[in-house]
Amino acid sequence: MESHPEFYAARALLEWQVELGATEAICDTPINRFELPEAQPKAAAASGAVAPAELPKGPQPAAALAVDAVAVARAAAQSSGDLAALSEAMATFDFCELKRGAKTTVFADGSPDARIMIIGEAPGRDEDSQGKPFVGRAGQLLDRMFAAIGLSRSAPDPEASIYITNIMPWRPPQNREPSPEEVAMMMPFVARHVELAQPDFLVLMGNTPCQALLGRKGITRMRGNWTTALNKPALPMFHPAYLLRNPQAKREAWHDLLMLQARLRGGS
Q1: Domain tally for the chain?
Q2: What are phi and psi of 81, to 5 degrees?
Q3: 147 within a domain of the structure (yes/no)
Q4: Residue 177 within a domain
Q5: CATH at residue 81
Q6: Residue 61 contacts by C-beta under 8 Å, 6 or more apart in sequence?
Q7: What angle do the packed helices 180-197 and 69-78 form, to 10 degrees?
Q8: Which of 64, 152, 169, 247 has the smallest C-beta neighbourhood within 10 Å, fewest atoms?
């Protein structure tokens, strides 16, 4: 039988894309959804018509529709009068490409009345499957960490409970870091989430929420230092996933938990 190298090369490329998480072929070429459309020729614009040779070919970028995704997100978030409405608004927001590859929209877990609101980065595989934040190995460690200072996501008492969410409600492919454009789209929802939940304190788990809410990274320098985010006292901490990779940092994490406990009890 005659071999066809092109076939096997194409097959290997397809299998590689599937392993990366690709599930659907949208079009033949990549689409830059943040690219501005080219200006229409003056003559055509004046007449209101487009010559047949100038008609756009193939699928057009979403930006060609002149839609500001951040403005849409801001309007949707501000029109949400409670957390249930905000959750629905996020679930129906269709301008973030991450949603296309995610199984679920991960909104929050724990008690919305809790004094502490924990903000992480984005769902992982387990979170995407279960629809809840921090339920994998990192989430189990997070539960043990806060249990050590008497707090739990399942506690009915707001004084003993925590409320957990993420900057991104959808899992990025291969758990990559969310892009600045993706984060910008979701920030109006995050701000409204904090506004509706009204926690006393925010805990920023890792670099991504620190970059999104404080405008800077460097969690090893920032952790353990109180700051302000969205008009709330905020404490940057190591992400539990980082602690799983670097167990020696658990001492610093315990120090930060004790700082949080002291603040809850009225200390400085």
Answers
A1: 1
A2: -85, -15
A3: yes
A4: yes
A5: 3.40.470.10
A6: 31, 32, 33, 34, 35, 37
A7: 10
A8: 247
The residue type of 135 is V
Please, what is the end-to-end C-alpha distance for the chain in angstroms? 78
Domain of residue 123 covers 64-264
Q: How far apart are CA 91 and CA 6, in angstroms?
A: 41
CB contact at 8 A, 193 and 108: yes
Closest Cα to residue 181, out of 59, 69, 21?
69
Token duo for residue 158: 């707001």
pLDDT digits (tens), the chain, 268 positions: 445 667 666 776 667 666 666 666 555 565 665 565 554 444 444 444 444 344 444 554 544 445 799 999 999 999 999 999 999 999 999 999 999 999 999 999 999 999 999 999 999 999 999 999 999 999 999 999 999 999 999 999 999 999 999 999 999 999 899 999 999 999 999 999 999 999 999 999 999 999 999 999 999 999 999 999 999 999 999 999 999 999 999 999 999 999 999 999 986 5
Instruction: State which amino acid sits at residue 207.
Output: N
Q: How many CA atoms lie within 13 A of 86 on its CB side?
A: 24
Q: In this structure, which amino acid lies at residue 177?
A: E
In a domain, 13, yes or no: no
Tokens of 200: 């006393």
Cβ atoms of residues 179 and 25 within 8 Å: no
Query: Tell me, what amino acid is at 11?
Result: R
